[in-house]
Amino acid sequence: MLTARLALKSLRNRLLPSILTVASIAFSVALLVGIENIRNGLRDSFTGTISGTDLIVGPQSGTIQLLLYSVFGMGSPTGNISWEAYEHFRDHEAVSWTIPYSLGDNHRGFRVIGTTEDFYDHFRFRREGRISFAAGRPARERYDVVIGAEVASRLDYELGQTIVVTHGLGPAGIMDHDEHPFTIVGILNRTSTPVDRAVYVTLEGIEAMHEGWQDGVPPMPSFAPADPDPVAEDGSPGGPAEGAGAGGGGPPASSPAQTTQITSFFVGATSRFETLGLQREVNQYEGDALMAIIPGVALAEMWRTVGYAEDGLKIVSFFVVIVGLLGMLVSLYTALEARRREMAIFRALGAGPRRIVSLLVVESGLLAFLGAALGVALVYLGIVLFQETVEQAFGLYIPLRALGRLEWIYLGAVVTAGFVIGLVPALKAYRTTLTDGLSPRT
Amino acid sequence: MSSAPAVHIQRLRFAYRTGPLVLDIEELLVPAGEKVFLHGPSGSGKTTLLGLIAGVLKASQGEVRVLGTDLGAISGAKRDEFRGTRMGYVFQMFNLIPYLTALENITLPCRMKPARRARVEGSLEDAARALADRLEITGHLRQKPGELSVGQQQRVAACRALLGAPELVVADEPTSALDHDRRTRFLELLFDSCDSVGATLLFVSHDRTLEGLFDRALSLPDVNRIGQAAA
Fold first, then answer.
1. What is the CATH number of the domain that holds B128?
2. Domain span including residue B83
3. pTM, two decimal places
4. How many domains does the structure of chain B reveal?
5. Is the complex ipTM higher than 0.95?
6. What is the DSSP string of A187-207?
7. Which residues of B touch A354 (CB under 8 A)?
8. Does residue B95 lie in a domain region?
9. A149-174 pLDDT, tens digit each
């Protein structure tokens, strides 16, 4: 009790040096905890790019390749899936929902994804993150288009504007589908995932663009000049059954009868337990050569291969720890060295070694503890204050999370080192008074 | 009060670790209840001798008996306890803990050592105030050392050394920072306070002009054979 009171009074007496010591400890702790949070945020952003989806199905290829083009919007699809195969699994009893994806076009470098309204209902990212609209509504009509947040801000688009889609996945695509302009009906809220950089149309929209194309090649030029207008106005001749209704902008153009192929699809199983059986069934499907991947597993696998950025941050953390501890030891040690005279007085008043040691140890331990606590508080305050700013500036979402193992170890090391470093001058002070008598002359 | 001598040193030899002998004293006696002046020029081993009497240092050979207790025969922790409980100590300067008020400084030894606290009857603060009154520092009890003059600081230190009725008060050149008038006044107050608690006073100084005020005067060079050999 007396020791603690004395330590507090002594700290208050040297307020400025104490504050500086606490601040230097706090900053080094904040640096480490901050780096850890960013590291964690990176991994979370990565593995949280998609969630809630049990399987991703595509043509047989590499796991990572499928993941890249279906989730990250990178690389090219290796082939297509027949509509029959998609229907087979869409109507499978173990399947709760599906999201079809049809890739192959871009708008000024942003990928165009043909999908259904299932996308807006079922797509999830970062656990419970849902697709939501900053403005407008989902794409329902043939020439409706919904754009991601980054597309909107980068190109400065608004609702009602018309845009033209280019064939091919890169911005260098040569063939504009300019006979089929699309109207922006929706702008999505920012998700900090590749969704922000995509453009969504309906499957019918994709088919309409490629009307008459065969194997990725447009119809012969000689036919083209005559055709475009009637095709655009009347709907496609390929879908006469409900073509009139769809073209007239009536109820949602439902069953995309003309769609014969898609690129991949996402599957939500009726229960988690069905996932493995379903995966096996997809892989053994006889109609097409298909493969199914479990996104969580594939993402974790991929993170291991691309995660060396994380290793880099780990190395930085390690040096931060070393430098932080050294700085702390220096400032604590100099603060305590200045007090040998005071220790001689305590000795003369009958303070034994235990009292001297505990006085200094409590003091340096207290500084270390305050510094550690303040450092952690700084980081969490920073996350709360700047979470949104960082998300918007860097597309990096840093969640509020409990401290991890490495951080606890470091905090433990800081506080322990704080206590231990108090021992050194304390023992020295005690020994000095023994050799100098009661009046150290320095 | 014990009738044993306050300090009784016999056949003492002391050296720091493997260094040369610093003290070699056949006998030194401070009778209980007296005010003793110990003269020693700097370098004569004063500080070492006081360290031995205070029990911070341990004799290499011989016996240091303080208030009847052989300090060489008890452990370091016991010596700390002994010093804190039964002795008072006044330094040359820098006597006080800078972040405590004068009153907190005065009561510190009693707060650290319950046995010393037990020697004070009634409220610790009242006892401290009574002593402070005698030493004429009542008006400064709420101040920190930095706000006090050197003379006031020395009186606070004396007050701290005396609270808790120690049987022996050791003062190590407490007046060297004071001018002549203040020196005499400080001694008068110190003597008076020692009498009031019945303490023996061992006063060490290189300044022989004060010698006449004491009951008895000793000269360290006379008793320490090492100093004699060097001279």
1. 3.40.50.300
2. 33-57+74-219
3. 0.69
4. 1
5. no
6. EEPP-SSGGGGEEEEEHHHHH
7. 77
8. yes
9. 999 999 999 999 999 888 877 666 56
